[in-house]
């Protein structure tokens, strides 16, 4: 199973690209495996491993059903999206921790909302936030550090419920192509079109990093249907929204990024089973359900 919080895969691949272009594939794989093993000391990675197993099983099943199944693989960008400029989403930010990447949205010039799974277990000083850039390297953007992290009270990496966190920036973040977005007051209805955006690598083999922001339109799925879709794999709660479109989805590296409708923030990229697979919508945090909590945190900190 490929959860959106596999975002660190992106980091590994980016790192591989930057640091060992001359390295043999064997050496690279060995290094990768070592990293994964190291990481498996924590809960998050343990879940990841499990998830990987169930992905294999399910692929087999799908194949047996003679559906048009692609083998389980890592799709690490907005799948089926098109390149876009940050001017179409001035509220989007890159959230970096070393070479790890997540997305986020500016709610005010001082506060970023992202996925809890992007930040839980790390300290504020580990992160930087960059805004006003369309490119992955972000050299044309403006950078801020993070003063404090506030994780939603019901979040656990196990259930991925209430997958939201707020970051207070060290100073205000404004400038060209930088703006804020307001939180939705009600959940989008089933059938509504919403927009997802994020950065990521362009190929699962990970030798080329995408330099541009990608966006795609997906459609909200009925909650009841999504619950059935994920039965036995994940519990779809009232803090979640599901959305899909044929061949389009969010994927690793997009975690924490915005889901919008008419320039209002309705969701946060959270998780999914594979990416853009038939029968498995992307799962997003319902912003209208965490709004009260978010407003309280921003007012009190
Ligand atoms: C992983 O563990 C090995 C051996 O314990 C160590 O040499 C290596 O630096 C670790 N790598 C990371 C990324 O922590
Ligand atoms: C805020 O963080 C940025 C990026 O680390 C840094 O350049 C800037 O000087 C910081 N501002 C303050 C007021 O500390």
UniProtKB/TrEMBL annotation:
Residues 32-71 are annotated as: Disordered. The keyword Signal applies. Residues 51-68 have a biased composition (Polar residues). It holds the Pfam family Trypsin. It comes from the Eukaryota. GO terms for biological process: proteolysis. Keywords: Disulfide bond, Hydrolase, Protease, Serine protease, Signal, Zymogen. GO terms for molecular function: serine-type endopeptidase activity. Residues 1-24 form the signal peptide. Residues 78-299 form the Peptidase S1 domain. Belongs to the peptidase S1 family. This is Trypsin beta. The gene is LOC108007084.
